[in-house]
Specification:
A hairpin with a 4-residue loop joins strand 1 (24-30) and strand 2 (35-39). By secondary structure, this protein is α+β, with helices and mostly antiparallel strands. A five-stranded mixed sheet has the order 2-1-3-4-5. Helix content is 26%, strand content 25%.
Length: 122
Amino acid sequence: MDTLIDMARKARSNAYIPYSKFAVGAALLAKSGRIYTGANIENASYGLTICAERTAIVKAVSEGEREFEAIAIAADTKAPVLPCGACLQVMAEFHIDRVILGNLTEEKEVSLSDLLPHNFTL
């Protein structure tokens, strides 16, 4: 069986990246046991681009999921890839504290609170 990081690596192949050529994949494990994958999707109006992490989270939430165990993110980078601030805030919204960062050959697990110690809350 593929690990969550392996699924994130495979999800990279679905990236739509005509501008940056930088493919990112994500795999999100819901508490239900279902896994949702995502890839980054770019747009000529660059602000409309959506990251792989948010793609996976939006897919899961739109299917009724609200509780999550972990998310894995992978890209072809020198060190394991880090999520952007927007993705970190969306992870915080859904309390996704277990984050697996990866590149094509290695991975490391961190907590969301390590990456975003002061998230926005109401």
